[in-house]
Structure formats: C-alpha cells, structure tokens
Amino acid sequence: MNALDNIKNSLIDRILATKNERLLEAINSIFDSTQSEEIVSLSSEQIEMLLMSEEDIQTGKIISESELNKT
After folding, report:
1. What is the pLDDT of residues 35-56, one digit of tens each?
2. For the residues of 14-63, what is the DSSP string, one character each?
3. Contact at 8 Å (CB) between 24 and 15?
4. Residue 5: phi, psi to the nearest 5?
C-alpha cells in the first residue's frame, strides 16, 4: 500500500469514528468546493469491500447506528 492509500484509509477511519457533526460538514464542504471531473479509480480490495457491503445489505446483515453506539 502506498502513502496515498495510507492517508485515505486513515482519513476514512477517522471520519467513521467521529461524532462531530460540524467537522463532517466542514469536510463535506471541502470536498464540494474542490470537486471536479476527477476520475476515481478503486483498488481491487476496495471494490471487493463494496461488493461485500452490498451483499450484507441485501441479506440484512446490518446494525443500526444506535445499536452500534450501545456496544
């Protein structure tokens, strides 16, 4: 995994862990202001994880955020 992938994965982990709505809105605003016709290419691992997530959703293997916060 290269440095760019490490940064992306670190940011994803931090975004998923935060409960700070203002921070998430600011991050979203940054993305909105810098969005262009950029083509995003996914690694085979990322594609596999997305497919696994879709399968989990279709088979009902999901947990609500409130249930998650209880653990």
Report:
1. 766 677 889 999 999 999 999 9
2. HHHH---HHHHHHHHHHHHHH--SPPP---HHHHHHHHHHHHHHHTT---
3. yes
4. -65, -40
